[in-house]
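Appendix B. Raw example, untouched.
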Amino acid sequence: MHGSGTARPAVSVIVPTLNERRNVERLLTDLDPGYELVVSDGGSVDDTVEAVRRVRPDCRVVTQGWSRGTSVVAGLQAAHGDALVLLEADGSTCPSEIPRMVTALDDADLARGSRARRRPVGDSALAAVASARLGTRVTDPWCGATALRRSTVPRLGLPDLTRHAAGFELLLAFRAAQEGLSMCEVPGIRAAPWHQPYAVNSLAENSRVIRALLAERRCPARTVPAPRVPVDGVVPKISDRAWLRSSPAAPRPAPSASAAPGCRPTPRPRAAPPRRSARAARTARRR
């Protein structure tokens, strides 16, 4: 994704937050100021937004969202860079890993990170299901580091992904696989030095994401590759409605000849079976 005249493409970093004041201050301090920063807050009550504006006054803050999925979608729609990078606010992905994620987009439309650590049984089961559904190897299903081209966003059907909270990045990758977009995995993603490891994901959380993956219906994938735009070019804003208008529509059935013009024929109501009286039922049983 390197263009003429610049050493690095325009990169937008989207950070969803919810009561992450202490972590987000350290994260933004380590972040390259050359990146466009979009913080999508889900309603923090611990002065997270004030801390963000204090550390990075040039940051774009989006305060829309009632779940993680809604926050991520709002951040993706507010970003302007050609390369979009999703970064966790808790420091589970070090900001120094962003150049590796962006470089991976030279050969792919979406890049997922993978951490080198031992995984419990629940994570391994989720990784197996995700690999089967995506059609590519998924090593670390809970790694939130994701980079994608902005030109692919209109094709992913983001608004109906907002109901998902856990495993949103994995479902985003599934939508990319549905659309026939190319994906790759960036191994060896490191955490920030100040990151505090948290407890492993429970079987209930893994099961919830597995059910969400299995519930996603696979429609015929559009194998048309995503448009590759130069760094100094303009990314066309294509809405999902415009994309659907360009796809062939299914033929509608012809109206019945007995129907009035402009009206649909009304189906005949089915006659209810006659009810027996209690006395008639007793008589029938005796016979």
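End of appendix B.
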